[in-house]
Automatic annotation (TrEMBL):
InterPro entries: Bact_response_regulator, CheY-like_superfamily, GAF-like_dom_sf, GGDEF_dom, Nucleotide_cyclase, Rev_trsase/Diguanyl_cyclase, Sig_transdc_resp-reg_receiver. The keyword Phosphoprotein applies. Residues 317-451 form the GGDEF domain. Keywords: Phosphoprotein. PROSITE patterns: GGDEF, RESPONSE_REGULATORY. This is Response regulator. NCBIfam families: GGDEF (TIGR00254). GO terms for biological process: phosphorelay signal transduction system. Pfam families: GGDEF (PF00990), Response_reg (PF00072). The modification 4-aspartylphosphate is found at D53. Residues 4-118 form the Response regulatory domain.
Length: 616
C-alpha cells in the first residue's frame, strides 16, 4: 500500500537507509534533517506518515509531533529513538503516536509498523472521501429539489422571492437582489433582501449596452464593490434574457467555484420558471378580461392589488389606486340605447388603455365603474393621471360620438398607499370620497369644464352684485368677495415656507401678476431653497428685474392686459390645493379663493392650455 512518507532524522545514515528501504516498497519518501525543515516540507505537501527521530538538536521529536498534530489531529507519526524507555512513555501515549521503534531497527519491524500506519491512513482517506461524496450528493440533491420547486410553482410573485432566497442559500450570500424582464424588455427590480440599501439599487436596467455581452454569455461573473465581492448571475432561457440576480456579502468572505457552479444550475431552472410564469400570467389575463372592453375582471384586480400591497409593505414602495365612474350611464342607456352605452364604456376603456404603462392594470368593477392600479406612483402622480385620463377620454372617437347626443358625466378619484390606507377596502373608500368631493365641487355645479381660463376667472370672480356661489357640505369651501390687500403677499410667504420645509413634495405652483420682480415674497422666500426642490414653480407677468432664480421659472407675458389686471396663485401638491384670484380696484381688492381640488386642477389645466405651458 504505497503512500507518501516524511523521514525526519539528524543522522544521515538512518535517513538514507529509510529512503532506500521504503522506496523499494513503492512509497514516495522525503527526508528532512531537523524539525524546522520537516515543518517546511509539511507546509508544502501532505504526508500519509511522518517517521521522526526523538532526539534531535533544537526541536525534538516530541515537540515536532505536537506541532504536526496541531495542523492535522489525525496525522500518522512513528517515533524512532535509541532510548528503550520511549515506547509506552507517557509523552508518546499522550501524543497518540502510531508506534515507537528502538534503534537499531530491524527491517521487518520498520516495514510492519509502516504498513500498519499506512493502512490506518488509507482508511481515514477513504472515510474522508466517502464523507465528501455524501456531502456533495446531499448538496446536489438539495440543489435538485430547489430547481424542481422553481419549475413546479408558476406564480411569478412567489418565484421572484424564491429565486433570490435559493441563490443566496446555495452561494452562502447574505444579500441578494433580482431584476426581472418586463413587457418592454427592460430589467426591473422585483425583490431584494439582506444588507442592501434600496436607494443604491437601480429600479431599471437595460439588457443592451455594457450588460449585453455578459447576459448573452449566460454565465455568472464576479465583480468587486466598495464592501466585498459581488456575484452576478444572469437568468437566460433558450437564449432569452429573463432576469439578473446580484449576490453579495458571502459568509465565507469570498465566492468559491462551487458557488458559481451551483448558481449557474439554479439560474437556468429559474429562468425557465420565470418564462413559464410569464406565459401563464399572460394566459390568465386573457381569460380574466371582460369580453366587451378587454379590461380585467374585479376578481383578478383584487388579487393583483393584494400582491402589490404586499410588495409595497415589504419594500417600502408606494402605488396609487384610481376609480372612475360614468354617473349618468343609466340615463345614456335609457335615452340612446344599450348599444350606445356599451360603446361609451368601450371607448373609455380604450382611451385609458392608451395612456397606461405595461405595469398598470385596469379593471371593470361594474357596468359604470372602473379601477386602475398604478405601481410606483405617488398621490400627485395619480392626480395628474386623472387629468390626463379625462382628457384622453374626451378625445376618443367612440366617446365623442356618444357625447354629441348626450355628454358623459365621468368622474375620477385617487388614493395612494400608504398615505390613504393600507388595505384595498380603505383605498377604495378614499377614492370614492374624493369622487363625491368632485361631484359636489364648483367645477361640476357651475359646469366650468368647457370654459377658457379667463372666462372661468371672470365667472368665479363675479361682481359685487353677482349671486352667492352655490355651496355643498361635501365640497371644499370656496369664497368670493373683498379680500385683504396683503393676502397675496402673505400667501406667497407661507407657501415658500412650506416648500422649503418639505422639498421632496411634488406639486405645481403658478403665481401671476402685472410684474415679475425680484422682491416678490415668493422669490425672496425661496432664495435658500435646496437645489433638489421637487415642485415646479412658475412666475407669470411682465419682465421687470428678475433675470434668473434657481427655484423659479419665469414666463414673461408682455402686453397681456388680462394678466396686468389680475393677480393669482394656483397651487396643487400632494398635500394641498389652493387658488386665489384677485382684481385690485380703486377701493377694496375683490377676489375669489378656494381649496376645491377640482377647481384648482381645472384652473391650472386651462392656464397651461392658454399660454402653451408644459404639463407636469
Amino acid at each position: 500500500m504505497a503512500g507518501s512518507i516524511l523521514v525526519v532524522d539528524d543522522d544521515l545514515f538512518f535517513r538514507q537507509l529509510a529512503i532506500d528501504l521504503l522506496s523499494r516498497r513503492g512509497h514516495r519518501v522525503v527526508a528532512a534533517e531537523n524539525a524546522t525543515r520537516a515543518l517546511e516540507e509539511v507546509a508544502r505537501a501532505t504526508f500519509d506518515l511522518v517517521l521522526t527521530d526523538v532526539v534531535m538538536p533544537g526541536v525534538d521529536g516530541f515537540a515536532l509531533t505536537a506541532r504536526l498534530r496541531e495542523r492535522d489531529p489525525e496525522q500518522e507519526v512513528i517515533l524512532v529513538s535509541q532510548r528503550t524507555d520511549v515506547q509506552g512513555s507517557e509523552v508518546a501515549l499522550r501524543l497518540g503516536v502510531a508506534d515507537c521503534l528502538t534503534k537499531p531497527i530491524e527491517e521487518a519491524d520498520l516495514l510492519l509498523a509502516v504498513d500498519r500506519a499506512m493502512e490506518r491512513a488509507q482508511l481515514r482517506h477513504e472515510r474522508s472521501r466517502l464523507q465528501d461524496e455524501n456531502l456533495e450528493f446531499a448538496r446536489f440533491h438539495n440543489l435538485q429539489q430547489r430547481c424542481l420547486e422553481l419549475l413546479s410553482h408558476p406564480d411569478l410573485e412567489w418565484l421572484q422571492e424564491r429565486v433570490i432566497s435559493d441563490l443566496g442559500a446555495v452561494c452562502d450570500a447574505q444579500s441578494a437582489a433580482l431584476w426581472v424582464v418586463d413587457d418592454r424588455g427592460d430589467l426591473g427590480l422585483r425583490s431584494y433582501r439582506g444588507l442592501l440599501d434600496k436607494q443604491f439599487l437601480p429600479e431599471k436596467m437595460s439588457p443592451e449596452g455594457p450588460l449585453s455581452l455578459r447576459l448573452r454569455e449566460a454565465l455568472p461573473w464576479l465583480a468587486r464593490d466598495e464592501r466585498s465581492t459581488v456575484l452576478y448571475v444572469p437568468l437566460v432561457a433558450a437564449g432569452e434574457v429573463m432576469g439578473l440576480a446580484q449576490l453579495s456579502d458571502p459568509l465565507t468572505g469570498d465566492f468559491r467555484s462551487e458557488h458559481t457552479r451551483d448558481a449557474k444550475v439554479l439560474a437556468d431552472f429559474a429562468a425557465v420558471g420565470v418564462k413559464n410564469g410569464r406565459k401563464l400570467l399572460a394566459l390568465q389575463r386573457l381569460g380574466l378580461r371582460d369580453r366587451d372592453t378587454a379590461a380585467y375582471n374585479l376578481s383578478y384586480f383584487t388579487d393583483y392589488a393584494s400582491k402589490e400591497i404586499y410588495k409595497a409593505r415589504r419594500y417600502g414602495r408606494t402605488f396609487s389606486l384610481l376609480t372612475f365612474s360614468i354617473d349618468n350611464l343609466p340615463l345614456v342607456r335609457v335615452r340612446l340605447g344599450a348599444s350606445e352605452a356599451k360603446k361609451a364604456v368601450r371607448g373609455i376603456i380604450k382611451a385609458l388603455s392608451k395612456i397606461i404603462r405595461d405595469s398598470d392594470v385596469i379593471a371593470k368593477a361594474s357596468d359604470q365603474e372602473f379601477y386602475l392600479l398604478l405601481p410606483e406612483t405617488d398621490f400627485f402622480g395619480a392626480m395628474m393621471f386623472v387629468r390626463r385620463a379625462v382628457a384622453a377620454v374626451r378625445d376618443e372617437p367612440e366617446v365623442q360620438d356618444v357625447e354629441q347626443r348626450l355628454p358623459l358625466a365621468l368622474v375620477g378619484g385617487a388614493s395612494t398607499f400608504p398615505k390613504d390606507g393600507e388595505d384595498f377596502d380603505e383605498l377604495v373608500h378614499r377614492c370614492r370620497r374624493r369622487m363625491d368631493e368632485r361631484r359636489a365641487s364648483l367645477q361640476r355645479r357651475l359646469m366650468l369644464d368647457g370654459l377658457p381660463f379667463w372666462d372661468e376667472v371672470d365667472l368665479l370672480l363675479g361682481t359685487p352684485n353677482s349671486p352667492r356661489l352655490p355651496t355643498d357640505d361635501r365640497a371644499e369651501p370656496s369664497r368670493r368677495g373683498k379680500v385683504a390687500d396683503v393676502l397675496f403677499d402673505e400667501l406667497q410667504v407661507e407657501i415658500a415656507r412650506e416648500l422649503v420645509r418639505d422639498p421632496g413634495s411634488r406639486g405645481l405652483l403658478y403665481v401671476g401678476g402685472p410684474e415679475i420682480r425680484a422682491d416678490l415674497p415668493l422669490a425672496i422666500g425661496l432664495e435658500q431653497a435646496p437645489p433638489d426642490l421637487s415642485s415646479r414653480i412658475y412666475l407669470l407677468g411682465r419682465r421687470v428685474d428678475l433675470e434668473s432664480h434657481a427655484a423659479l421659472t419665469p414666463v414673461f407675458l408682455e402686453g397681456d392686459e388680462r394678466v396686468a389686471r389680475h393677480e393669482f396663485i394656483l397651487w396643487l401638491s400632494e398635500s394641498a390645493s389652493y387658488a386665489l384670484i384677485q382684481r385690485r380696484g380703486r377701493g377694496a381688492t375683490w377676489g375669489f379663493h378656494t381649496s376645491d381640488t377640482a377647481v384648482v386642477d381645472g384652473l391650472i389645466s386651462k392656464l397651461q392650455a392658454e399660454y402653451d405651458l408644459q404639463p407636469y
